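Please go through the protein record below and see whether the fold suits the sequence. Record follows.
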Amino acid sequence: MNKELKGTADFYKKMLFTKRCELCGEVIYPVDTLCEECKNADRPEGKLCKKCGLPEDDCNCKKSHHICEYSAFAAPFYFDGSIAVGLVRFKNSGYAELASAYIKEIVNCVRERFVDVEFDCVTYVPMRKFREYKRGYNQSKLLAQGVADELGLPLEDLLIKVHHTKTQRGSSAKERRVNLHGAFDLAPNKDVKDKRVLIVDDVKTTGSTLNECAFTLRAYYAKSVYATSVAVVKKEK
C-alpha cells in the first residue's frame, strides 16, 4: 500500500470507527482487539528476580542494601511504548475500560509466577480520598477487584493512607522511600495476622510504594505479602 492510500485508510479508520485497543486505547480496525504495538509489547521473560520482577541479568538488586518487605513481585509487561501510553491514560485520562485487559494479564501472570501460593485475600495501594474523588476511581482498587474476582478471592480494603505525599514522578529511589515512610497504616477493624496477601498496583517503578505497603501489612503480622502490577519499569533508578 502506497503512502497516499495508507494515509487515506488511516484517516477513515479514525473518523468512522471508534473501536480501541484493549491495552492502550488507540483507535483500531473493528476486526482487531489490539494495536500492532501492543500485540508485540515487551514482557519480562525467563528467570526473573523475585524482588524487582526483571530478568536477573538486568536487575540491580544485588547491589542494593534496601530490605524488600514483600516475598516476590511479578508483572506481565514492561512500562514502555504503547503499554506506558495506555497506563497513563488509564490513570490520568479516564480510560477505566482498559482495566479489563489489564486484569486478565495480571491474573495470568500471578497464576504463572505464584503458582504454589495460596492467597487469603487481595488488596491494593490506597490513595487519598480527595485524589480518588477528583480522578473518579482508584486505578489500583479497580484492578485489584477484578483480580480478586478472577482468582475467587475476597478483596479487602486493608490499607489507608495516613499522610499526604508529594508526587513521586522524577524522584530517585531513595527520595521515594523517604517520601513514603510511614505513609500507610492498617485500616480500622482489619486483621491480617497469618494471612497471605496479594497487593495490586498499576505500575512498579522502584518498588518503594509496594514495599512500604508490604512493610505495614507485615508489621501487623501478615504471614507473607506478594506484589503485582500491570507493568514494571525496565531499570530501577
User: Anything to note?
Assistant: The longest helix spans residues 99-113.
